[in-house]
Amino acid sequence: MEARAFNVGYMRFNTEGEEMFVSVTPGFERGPGIQRDGISAPRMTDPHSVAYVMNSRGLKRRDPVIQTVNPYHQRAGTWTLYKHLSSFSEKLGSEGWRIIGAQGHGDLTMNFWHIAYCNEPQLNSTPIFCRLDTVEDKNASEPFQDRTYRCLVKWRDNSRIPRVEFLNVGFRAASRAAGVTVHLVDDQDRDVTDEVCFAMAGKTIIESRVELPLETIIDRFDDVRHIFALPESPARGFLHRNEIHEAILAEYNLYTYLNERRAALHCPVVIPLQPKSNLTFEWGELQGTLIRKHFRPTGHMADIPTLRGQFRKYPGQSGSAESVEVFFPRNVYPFGVIGMRSGSEEGSRNATEIIGLSSGGLSGRIGNTLEGITRVMYDFLACGEAMVVDEGLDVFQLVNPQYGSGEYKYRNEEILSSVAAHTTRLFEKEEAECRKKFPDSPHLRDLPLNQDVFIGPTQSPHVSSGPPIEEIFPVVPQRSQIRAVLIFAKRDSPHRAA
Question: 20 to 30 A from 264, CA-CA: which of 1, 142, 416, 444?
Fold first, then answer.
């Protein structure tokens, strides 16, 4: 017997007395991000080739600029969860701030539409503007001046009600510390740069109490595998001077053509067996792959697929290129979502809660669909606003449990002790995986950008016995390094932060 399980966790934070912070790996405020073409594995400019990243660590950029498909090297220099939390504790723990929760925001500075302006001097000496904007990535720059973002905004004024809210925000290039000003689009484009602690955006799924139809937001999901179950099959071709042996069916078509992506939500789509001149699928191999992946052939080639998971060899016209017609099922994936529940039954805006939802799993094998996650946020958690902030194995959730009295159980040092130990276990696992998949690559700890990133329990000052991992992680981290993290905290002392 084989058994599989995945965890779903959610947490509620009252914005009256609990605070939310955004922690971003220093030097990665502008990327580099994931680059896709729908054919090859996701690529990234090696962080060692990015001047902005290397300069932030006092290192010299490597020449020439190279791209890597090694996911472990793509994360070089990225802070671990332990590093995010320990840095927060060092800066704010002395002021009485206790960590009560954390959740990944791994898509920030990694994908389009994920953006954040942060101006919290306790964490960053100067304001920062986080988005895709790596000089070495010619086609990976967030067009922020052309877009309006549905942002979660945290105001600097502690007495403001609500202190945290979702608003339509525009960012304008300016000669300021972060290089931008922040504007409220629905308030005559008013400049609120000096009034906000942060304004951050992800992929909106619920807005103004409206559950957004997937076809209207699917353009923001560049990784189409997060939506559709697309099988990997033997293929032939060349790309970037490398021979192609396997490719993901329909990824190129659905990534490249937005209308095909929208159509695939509701009906079968026709995919050429040669979707591009340098990529070819052979029908016999593809048919076998589809059946092994639990796709079902229609009863006859003349029968149109009408159910998700059905396929047929598309008859086409005489002399036309061979094609397959598939009604693609939805894919299951880990998702991290941040939302808001505002207003009491009487309609007051004073009772405001931030909702964090993390749904774990194994990408493409077990987990939840995007529509399922949206339904949980809308129907079960009654969120009037929600956005996806993380996808894939970055997804996690940490919660500091409470006693019956409402007091939080563990001090920061105890939380950090358990996180440090888990980080070390993850790193050792990733090192072994990297050596197996990329035998010629250097050890992860030997990468220049990783020199000050990895720290284990034996090196950490937090060596006391911490809580069991399963007690503080409703959804356990499956990666040691995460680009950005949302941290929730509360002051032990009665007074609030200034």
Answer: 142
